[in-house]
Amino acid sequence: MPLSSQTAHIDTADSRPRAWLLSAYRADSHAAWADWLLASQPQFNWQRLELPGRHFAWRIRGNPLSWLDALPLEQPALIVASSMVDLATLKGLHPRLAGVPTLYYFHENQFAYPLSHRQSHWLEPQMVQLYGGLAATRLLFNSAFNRDSYLQGIAGLLAQMPDAVPDGVVQRLAQKSVLCPVPIEPVPAAQQRDSQLVLWNHRWEHDKCPELFVEAMVALAEKGVEFRLALLGKRPQRAPPALARLREALPQRIVADGQLPAAEYRTQLGRAAIAVSTARHEFQGLAMLEAASAGAIPLVPDALCYAEQYPSACRYPQGDVAALVERLRLWLTGGLPPRVDVTPWYSASLAAVWAGLLAAAPGAGATPSAPSAPI
Question: In angstroms, how far is CA 365 from the centroid of its own chain?
């Protein structure tokens, strides 16, 4: 993929409205969303511009410069931009785009993202998303938690501004905000499920709090509970300390360990009885939704986006290792709660929601009222 863009040939004879997809950080779930959107919405003549998912600090602020000479000459009827795009600067550098209807999609927001020990100041990314929200026609969020934490973060940021603060900024943003999750493709259950298999299918990074998961698994083993572990998810080449500790403490219980190819990954999801999250940051939780679609029972913090998705029986107090261990002990020795219905997040349910939002943008075709997302 070129550094500046990934574009498709535009057929000038195509009568469909032209639309641009701008994604400034093509990585993992960002990429899955972009690929799905273009594949599921063929009523538009799409042109895609993306940047690789690396060098975050440079990417979120530098994308208008990377695309300075890369934008198509043809004027689009609609722009769909991820919230990694510095939309206000991009429109300022290209005045011809000022009046183009723009949907600004928040896969995550930089107000609720927990900083690591290496990060102390996060103003630049937050300002990008504030100005981007003001420059957009409509703001799309993949969960109510994402929307609410963004709006609360804007209010907190403006409260720190020393003077000359305009009135009603949060209200303006709220009035044009809509919920529209990323869809998942359901994962089939395996022919035979392992009733003792506990799944971890998240990135091994600080915002997913793997140390808490490891602490709980070690404590569970010390209680004499029988279980096995499938340790999936993206990890650096050098094993992070949490993963190294788990490998050393419970090697005989680990039946899968690695970032697996898609087919093998889905097989493990289909076999698992329980899927655990210990996240401090989750705006939609695609990995947990996929596991739940395969029939694994989610056990998640009672926080973040999870309260919108899972019943109270599947939630434990965030950060409470003892509560997590006890819930796992009960489930593994006394039986699991009922399977959770996550069909509202399936592609079959959400394609029409996205189509309605795209069509409702001025100049993009029909103008129906945007449907509400089924969450």
Answer: 28
The tokens describing 194, both together, are 């392992």
Q: What token pair was written down for 158?
A: 């403006």
- With a threshold of 0.70, does the pTM exceed it? yes
CA dist., res. 359 & res. 369, Å (int): 9
Q: In the structure encoding, which two tokens stand for residue 237, read together?
A: 């080449």
Give pLDDT tens digits along the chain (375 positions). Answer: 344 445 444 566 789 999 999 999 998 888 989 999 999 999 999 999 999 999 998 999 999 999 999 999 999 999 999 999 999 999 999 999 999 999 999 999 999 876 655 544 578 999 999 999 999 999 999 999 999 999 999 999 999 999 999 999 999 999 999 999 999 999 999 999 999 999 999 999 999 999 999 999 999 999 999 999 999 999 999 999 999 999 999 999 999 999 999 999 999 999 999 999 999 999 999 999 999 999 999 999 999 999 999 999 999 999 999 999 999 999 999 999 999 999 999 999 999 999 999 999 876 654 334 444 544
Q: Which two tokens stand for residue 21?
A: 């997809």
Paired sense of beta strands 315-316 and 297-301, if any: parallel
